[in-house]
Specification:
The longest helix has about 40 residues. The chain starts with 11 loop residues before the first helix and ends with a helix. A 4-stranded mixed β-sheet has the order 1-4-5-8. Helix 1 runs parallel beside helix 3, helix 3 runs antiparallel to helix 4 and helix 7 runs antiparallel to helix 8. It is of the alpha+beta class and about 400 residues long. Helices cover about 55% and strands about 15% of the residues. Strand 2 and strand 3 form a beta hairpin.
Length: about 400
């Protein structure tokens, strides 16, 4: 059943892309999703191969760099459609769309010309590696370092929870190059996967089977100065723009897809589950819980697509992006609880779709900041300290590139 989105800023072209994405996901990802879940696979390279055919890694990449340049609303539609069929595939796709952000936003002309067409064509998959094992969201406190050595930099340390670490060809790694704590103390580097000293350490999680969220270990990794993304000291800006502008909306879109699937599965179950002379769906209590799930989903969709629309319009909208991720997670978590009540003991039974979906949804909470971090940022937007809006920086960078291309 197609997604019934009815929002004033969704055009016929938007909905056409949505229907194409739904058809592709259903035909090409359904069997893969069952396979990944059945095998309990930690990393699935076949999903990468299938998704590479679509060009979707280039949804946000400029046309002159080989991308589709369709914007954040289309990206959100595609990620929701994919995640509805396979949450793991949605997570895989969004992680490398996120990984392309540092190159697209801050990469040198040479870096952009060399890598963005390859990414857009699905031949090169990037990751972004920011989080240190003991520092979490405290980016300025990271311990992984890069020190200059002649015309090179030597990177050392570990990065954890790196989406697509096991299938990525290049990693955008943020490390410390100055004294701890300062805004100019971090720098982003492009690191090829086959560089000596780069190791991916498997770190399986309990959901999204097929999606790798592994540890990237850097043991005296030598990279040239030309591998710096942006300028020396731009690391915090690179990480923040990617996380706020790309990451929050990406995760919100995946959450919408899982949320929609939870509602689909639950609606079908209560409609066919026998109870005395009728079905579970005949009970007022059951209908109330399903209505709560529908309400939660509609509320989340409004928040997420509103934020995507503002971003595409070039409006400063960081609070809306924080709100989109927060609302998508909270609404989906509330619906997950409703589904658990309606399924009873079957909600915990291995093999039940709802058990998998609830497990998958749990992994949407932490990436791009848990709910508490979104609340901190929303409080700052009202009470201060007021921060520069990364969405405004994103819009300004796009405008400059468009002017340069003209």
């Amino acid at each position: 059943m197609p997604t019934a989105l009815s929002l004033p800023f969704l055009t016929d072209d938007h909905l056409s892309v949505l229907h194409e994405a739904e058809a592709f996901a259903t035909s090409r990802l359904t069997a893969l999703a069952r396979q990944m879940e059945g095998l309990g696979a930690h990393t699935n390279r076949e999903v990468r191969r299938v998704l590479s055919e679509t060009g979707w890694l280039g949804l946000l990449i400029d046309a002159e760099d080989g991308g589709l340049n369709l914007g954040h609303t289309v990206k959100t539609l595609v990620l929701q459609a994919v995640s509805r069929v396979s949450p793991a595939a949605g997570a895989i796709l969004q992680a490398s769309i996120l990984g392309s952000a540092p190159i697209a936003e801050y990469g040198s002309e040479e870096m952009r010309r060399r890598l963005l067409p390859e990414i857009a064509a699905g031949r090169c998959w990037p990751s972004i590696a920011v989080t240190d094992p003991e520092r979490g969201s405290h980016i300025l406190g990271m311990e992984a370092t890069a020190r200059p050595s002649g015309g090179q930099y030597i990177l050392e340390g570990e990065k954890v929870l790196v989406g697509n670490a096991a299938i990525a060809d290049v990693h955008c790694v943020v490390v410390r190059t100055g004294k701890p704590g300062g805004p100019g103390s971090l720098t982003a580097f492009l690191v090829e996967q086959d560089t000596p000293g780069v190791d991916v350490i498997a770190a399986p999680v309990n959901g999204l089977r097929g999606f790798s969220v592994d540890t990237l270990r850097l043991n005296r990794v030598c990279v040239p100065k030309t591998s710096i993304i942006g300028e020396l000291g731009d690391g915090l800006a690179v990480a923040q723009l990617a996380s706020v502008v790309y990451g929050r909306l990406n995760l919100a879109a995946v959450a919408l897809g899982i949320h929609q699937r939870m509602l689909d599965e639950t609606t079908q179950r209560v409609s066919i589950r026998n109870r005395r002379e009728g079905h579970l769906a005949d009970l007022p209590t059951v209908r109330h819980r399903v209505a709560e799930m529908q309400h939660n989903l509609m509320t989340a969709e409004l928040a997420v697509y509103h934020a995507a629309h503002l971003l595409d319009q070039g409006k400063p909208c960081d609070p809306w992006l924080h709100n989109a991720k927060l609302t998508a997670h909270r609404a989906g978590a509330a619906s997950s609880e409703q589904a658990k009540q309606l399924y009873g003991g079957h909600a915990a039974r291995i093999g039940e779709p709802i058990e998998q979906l609830r497990r998958d949804f749990d992994l949407i909470h932490a990436p791009a900041g848990p709910d508490d971090l979104q609340l901190i940022r929303l409080a700052e937007s009202v009470l201060g300290p007021h921060r520069p809006q990364w969405s405004a920086e994103h819009a300004a960078r796009r405008a400059r590139r468009a002017l340069h291309a003209a």
